[in-house]
Fold this protein.
Amino acid sequence: MNHSPTIHILPPEIAERIAAGEVVERPASVVKELIENSLDAGASAVSVEIRNGGLSLIRVSDDGCGMSRADAPLALERFATSKISTLDDLEAITTLGFRGEALSSIAAVAHLEILTRTRDELEGTRVRAEGDQVRVEPAASPVGTSVTVRDLFYNIPARRKFLKSPMREGELVRQTVIRYSLAYPAVAFRLVVGGRETYVAPPATPLERIGTALGREVAAEMVEVAWEAADLRVWGYASTPTIGRRDRRGQFFFVNGRPVRSGLLAVMLERPYAGRLPPQRRPLAVIHVRLDPHLVDVNVHPRKAEVRLSQERSVYGAVTRAVEAALAPYPRQEGEFPALEWPFAGVPVEPGVVREARAEYVAGGLEPLGQLRNAYIVARGREGLVIVDQHAAHEQVLFERLVGGEGGRPLSPPVRVELTAREAELLEPYLGPLADLGMEVEPFGGHAFLVRSLPVPLAEQEPRVLLDALLEELPRCRRLDPEAVRERLAMKAACTAAVKAGDFLTREQMQALLDDLMASWSPATCPHGRPAFVLLTVEELERRFMRR
Ligand SMILES: Nc1ncnc2c1ncn2[C@@H]1O[C@H](COP(=O)(O)OP(=O)(O)OP(=O)(O)O)[C@@H](O)[C@H]1O
Ligand SMILES: [Mg+2]
């Protein structure tokens, strides 16, 4: 460099936008901040509305305490907060907000409008921020506050480029609303997406709220967690070992009412499930930890997504103890999960987990009657007529066997495949995850590779065809964690190897598939979530034929 760079102070409008970027990452972070403000304002109902994934519009309305005409414009100023005033307060935060930063940050990167009224005022106030202009005017308003955010990141196009599709951003908003609704069941929540009400949660007990947010089947399989020590309380709900998920998306943790994400908490929760739930399965849970606010430092993350605890391990250890106590009625299997005999061959399972599926469907089993259009298997079951989508069903069966870790079957001789330079480069980093699935592939000089084994459930597949399919999937694995990569690859492999619609199946093949499906963990859907079968009950038939 010929000349040394000169140091200069950034103009305030640029500095502001950079600082705002820390707080406001995407529509979901705006929603999070606004919901937190509503909760801090003592709202009993919070309504969230978004359009275009939150990019065109986000509106969060509450029936909380509102802001007075004098206070409302101050809310937009940086470091303006009603929640703390002294350093001592910062040592013991009892509200979700404390920095006085959220609204000013949002106003720096979007068009923001506040409509608000307190109980003592007859007339409400509208505050509008456009650039550095703040306009205040009288306006009719119900008691409470409604904050509208339009055209997010209109002035930082670079930031927009990092956003996902409006649908994905909308989904993140939805997850945010669900998370807070689980934390505050006494508060009513509502989400409107593109004019359509997609989530309505009336005030409820914690367990009822779990039913609304995560599904009634989940709520029915929850046990209460309640544990207390001198200065610490752990409570909430955790799933019984009869259900489980492949990921941790069903786990919610709150420390002093604040959602936190922490791998350590997940591990502490999962520990008591060892020997009760198969290793690939994750419990679902909504767990609250409450402790003296002096022991929690909430001021460690720009989006307040994490907290720091003094004596983190002992606090989180309480989660293990609390959940362990709640699971006491569910006996633990010491050591390995017993591999059950057919029809569970090869899949390490805990008997309780498949108990229900088995009781319901394999009481007599399913008897194939025939194939419809070579795509659906029609079968007779105890409950009625079962129609199975043969591809979806086979996909699910293979998928479960793949992630169940049956290992590989060696190819003799190994198969040499020649890839392009681009494919070779793509493949290299994923040789580990492939080996985990039972597919051992090793470099063989140049862009050649040697396929040494195929996953047991896919041992009959053409190695090259399978590898090509997986190569297609690899670009989508880039930013995923190893577990998610394994799952994606298993899904792709299962889809490639599964029987297709149009394939003729013999009676024996149909029977084998039906048996396998009914023995699987989650026979209801394929790994992508499409239904694997529909059940036409005898009752339903009687209704249709007007016998009832
Ligand atoms: N929905 C609301 N109802 C009543 N008052 C509100 C509402 N939203 C914001 N306020 C007022 O505006 C102030 C500023 O809000 P802002 O979110 O910017 O900061 P904060 O909540 O104090 O701290 P943080 O930046 O950590 O969220 C709040 O302290 C509160 O007094
Ligand atoms: Mg706030």
Q: What stands out?
A: The pocket of magnesium ion (ligand 2) is lined by residues 33, 36-37, 97, 102 (CB under 6 Å).
